[in-house]
Known about the structure:
By secondary structure, the protein is mostly helical. The chain has a domain at about 10-110: Orthogonal Bundle (Arc Repressor Mutant, subunit A). Helix content is about 65%, strand content about 10%. It is built from eight helices and three strands; from the N terminus they run H-H-H-E-H-H-E-E-H-H-H. It has helices at about 5, 15-40, 40-55, 60-65, 70-80, 105-115, 115-125, 130-145, and strands spanning about 55-60, 85-90, 95-100. Strands 1-3-2 form a three-stranded antiparallel sheet. It is globular, with a radius of gyration of 19 Å. The protein starts with a helix and ends in a 6-residue tail after the last helix. The mean pLDDT is about 90.
Amino acid sequence: MTNEETEGSLLLDDQLCFALYAAQRAVTSVYRPLLDELGLTYPQYLVLLVLWERGETTVKELAAALRLDYGTVSPLLKRLESVGLVRRERAAHDERSVLVACTGAGEELRERAAGVPGALLAATGLAAPEVARLREELWRLAEKSQASPNRPH
């Protein structure tokens, strides 16, 4: 099939969005047992990745890093706080801003989580260069889609 033929195709397997959806579900299913051992969901893991990388940060910065809205991040933080992995407090310099940081237990979990990326590579059979190439292409797709004039605002 030529490029012109697949551009307007309504075949399920020709849809970029379906390939992304199927890949996301497959990769998430590989993550699930690894994260179950840590007592985390995938979105909670992402929150902790940001905190482990950046340290204490505002909810606004955390939401931006995860490309999520405040309404989605807030319940994640409440759950992580209820199990003692993060703490939230109002910023002294700006009462409107809420700071988030890992607790000692959250930092300890970092050590246990250190094997997750390698286990994912092993489970998928992808080499590090393949993963890097895929990641770059997906980020480029995300950027182009974000900048698309056809994107609803």
